[in-house]
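To whoever is covering the structure queue this week,

Two jobs came back overnight. Logging them here so there's a record in the thread.

Job A:
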Amino acid sequence: MSVLYDLAKDTYEMFRPPKMQSVSDWADENRILVSESSAEPGRWRTDRAPYQREIMDAFTQPMVDTIVVMASAQTGKTEAELNMMGRAIDIDPGPMLFVQPTDSFAEDFSKRRVAPMIRACPPLQKKVYEAKSRDAGNTITMKTFHGGSVSFTGANSPTELAGRPVRYVFMDEIDRFPDSAGTEGDPLELAERRTETFRGRGRKIVLTSTPTIKGASKIERAYMTGTQEEWHTQCPHCQQFSYIRFDDIKFDKEEYKDSYGEKQYAVSNVRWKCPQCGAEHNEFDTKRCPGKWVSKNPRAIDNGVRSFRLNAFMSPWSDWKDICRKFLKGKDDPELLKTFYNTILGETWEIKDRSGTPEKLYARREHYNAEVPTGVLVLTCGIDTQGNRLEYEVVGWDREEQSWGILRGMIFGRADADGTWEEVDDLLDREFKLKNGMKMRISATFIDSGGNFTEDVYRQCAKRNLRGRKIWAIKGDEGMARPLVRMMKKDRDGDGSAKFIIGVDSGKEAIMYSTTVEQVGPRYMHFPVDYDRGYDEEYFRGLCSEKVVEHRRMGRTTKRWEKFYERNEPLDMRNYARAAYKYFRWHFDKLESMLTGKKETEKVETRQQVEKRKSRHIVSRGIRV
């Protein structure tokens, strides 16, 4: 009888109509956050981040089939997706697909985020089949439950993306998706195509991501097709609602130096200035003000697309002081500034046109007061490998990435010839004179190992590093979101010497940014007027020889660096020299004392000493880019 009873109960459950409960109500009632996947374990409270309510409840809105969230990091967008998925499993089940940028990301997400959620949520614990040995119903990449299943896959996996029909699709961090899943095409289109069977029958597509490059950002493009809703905060003074923008954040700051002589910042008195009335409010009060979603494109609801935009200033998990410190650290570095815009402000980063720059740089060449001019603290070198020659540039740097072109030249000969490398040795051993008579040598060299001489470059670099010459082989890695420098995971020749991967696109972007800096100081580029140093008109054409070009194919927009002037070796050499400068942590105070002959007199202050001085001398200013 009990078997028949259980069968009848299960049959009834299959045909029971969905419970009328929103995602936020379901989460408040059932969701438990655990310490292994959350910084705030305990019962879920939607009121902790009120902006999440409307995003989650759009999932059960009948006329909405696509939800887009373009947001900064740490705003809870992934937790909102998990709540949508949990509510669907419990109340309105169906086949699901959860897509992450790669297969490894998908597996890690399933293990670290989904599995703990299921274990801590009683309704899901009952409905998701228990994992058993040799049971395909519950694995890392698939969870099966009454009425459906959820598959976890990477956007690089065409088989899963083009598989069976699904009713629910969740796609996380879509700006990190590849342009094509193998040879099958755009992973977004592949995944969305799987929901066609359920069009008009309760399908839901959820897209979330922090944005990347303007014009090439997938999440920005999806956001613009929707209702374009922004979370507006009510000013306690004038009662008007406004979106908290970076330009309206004011703060006090003070600079100090760490033990490496690098600039750090102490930030205090951060406040939001209402753009309507000018009244200022601190972080604590602002985060407790009422808020609401305001749509800039309400007619998009007719197409079933709701889109939301958030930045870190609304998040209860953000710290405004920390946000301001990150801005100050990155304001003169386009790589850090781009990350700040994407992950903190939730905005795309715009690459600007650099036309006319080569002529301006050539015209401002200057006379140095020595072979190595005053201000240079470290020398690096970038070497580009060609079929019949090596081209090199030696660059001087200060602590704030102000640069001086020192020497540009060529070594004729193939990279597999010992004679060519003897000339490389002469360059690495060369001593460059300062005004005070002291001498400097190149501290780090990156040499391109691409082309036909990869193994030769590896072998020659390993041999020279054993002699302390500090030259490392590198390979370029294209892609807008690649890190600037990272070490190769495995040495191909097994000699144990380090080899590096260079994110050439991010490096080019930083160099092009520096070419537009016109005030002497951080990131300003100096060039010598002396013709024998190699900085002729051809050099500057090559330095600015590439630009970002937008391509549109099959409805998709992509951006990539392309040459518009054939000889781009100067750009590559400067890219490698800069990567060598950026990768290693230089003790600038020590270098400066060695080069000038002066003792290190500047005392490095502790944070407590800085805090003690803050009340005596604080400069108040707004934020400007």
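Job B:
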Amino acid sequence: MAELLLEILSEEIPARMQVRAAEDLKRIASEKLAAAGLAFTKAAAYVTPRRLALVVDGLPDRQPDLKEEKKGPRVGSPDPAIQGFLKGAGLTSLDACEKRVVGKAEFWFAVVEKKGSASADVLPGVIDATMRALPWPKSMRAASNRFAWVRPIHSILALFGGKMLAGAFDLGGDKIAFGDTTVGHRFLAPARFAVKDFAGYVAKLEAAKVILDPAKRRAKILADATAAAAKLGVKLRDDPGLLDEVTGLVEWPVVLTGAIDPKFMDVPAEVLVTSMRAHQKYFATLNADGSLARHFVVVANRDTADGGKMVVAGNERVLRARLSDAKFFWDQDRKTRLADRLPALEQRVFHAKLGTMAQKVERLEGLSAFIAPMLGADANEAVRAAKLAKADLSSGMVGEFPELQGIMGRYYARHDGESEAVANAIRAHYQPLGPNDECPSAPLSVAVALAEKIDTLAGFWKIDEKPTGSKDPFALRRAALGVIRLIVENRLRLRLSAVFATALGEYGTDGKRSGELSADLMGFFADRLKVTLREKGVRHDLIDAVFALGGEDDLVRLLARVDALAAFLKSDDGANLLIAAKRASNILAIETKKDGHSFDEKVVETLLAQPEEKALAERLSAAEAAAAKALAAEDFAGAMGVLAGLRAPVDAFFDKVTVNAEDRDLRANRLKLLSHIRRTLSQVADFSRIEG
């Protein structure tokens, strides 16, 4: 068994593409090796800004020998058929074939043995095919070459069993021969050095100021940055996304610290953080009270003789220029009131088929006013917050930093003298933006945030621009998940169908069409809810079983039903009753198809012949009433307890009573009893949709 080591050295690969590229390299190479019949024990891929590397352990020295059998014509077939068979099998005579009896006839079979090639002869082709199959979001052609790659390739290191593979990669013009050397850090160790195996490759790279493993680089950056901040008496601001990005920008991370000019510290912290993060890739730091500290952390890609003093000075100088722009926007924007920016929204298109941003704001006002009283918020304040929510889009700061929309609106609203609740609602109306984003809890903020997302969903449903497959260009799935989080985390008793109808009404949708779209939206929410709950370990079929009852648009109540149903089915009574329910449904389905009759009528008491069916009928009537009462009181656990009491009489019925009795009336009455079982259980959930 031997090791394959591949390194593709190139110009800098964009940080955002690196992780996926390493995953794709490992996946595609593994597929190509398997297709070539080369099994292996394990494979791993690594990436730095300048190199993609792959190591595959446990490869055989040769491909396995293959034995192929091809069935030919019958013995005694005409010569043209025989000759065609021999030619297809690569043979010249029937001497190399066997006769075999298949059925009642005798046929010719060709058995062709194919010797496996040496792995060293096969691997260059595998490498070539892998490199050509590697997908990139964007790629380029270097010089006159026809082959496109993410960045110009400098060299390819290809070793098998410690020996250099023969071959070259054709760029469609130039060729890059496979080699056994690579280089270290671009500036600190640019000289080439030879490599024999992966262990030596990693060690020599590190000696040449390159840390190959991204996980190791990331851990070093985090540890060094945390320690550097602590040394200054501050705390590193948590920013996993920036940490991942910086990991992809450096091969030899060197952590340094600088300071923000005091004259910029009156600019909002979010602006300072965004400017440092987006443009300079600096980590912000926090004081003990959580406020933004003056210090920042920058990760350089090299050691310097002066310990990084000039690097820090240069970064501080660039940051001053960046923050000067930010401070200018901050000072200028506050000279214009948010309310005075509203006319500019008439020139900003929300969507070609859904009108301008000013029209969206009008809809938000109406929908926010409808939702606010349900949450205990003031409708007038909701209208005010909705009116101003998008006004900061025409500010200079948001023009420079689009990610600050809403955040800047809050600052400007406070400056204009708006109430704190209105200002906070402006900031929060986009939230939550994702699963890790903060979810608003203040009633006014929640009302406007719900309105913003539901208006978007209603609008795109109206023009039939729904998500399809993996495509969701308008982030409608994220909007629905945001609505679910707002409702569930705040335990809001909200009738979504009424909110959808109001939202669609703001678009001028008529009643019938509104009802159709609302129902379709609820189905979409059911799918999103399944995704959310599945991530929490809740079974999706339970959601289906509850949603199938229809008319349920209160997510809090629905989830309470699901929780109670899940707990019930974990019990012995629940599990056995589920089996009985499915048995009853199956019998009914068969007999209904046979008779063309549904058997949904009331059970005839005088036809109840055996004690077990009499007892079941009595218990079903009592359980149906008791379960309905518990459900009306939203005592879902109590309703499940009522159903649990049916287990014994249902089991006894199936054990002792023959449903398909010879007497036609008796049989029909017992089928009606099965229908009563199904009807009683269906008050809680559609048991036919539950798996198991």
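Note for Job B: The mean pLDDT is 93.

Please reply-all if you pick these up so we don't duplicate work.
Q.
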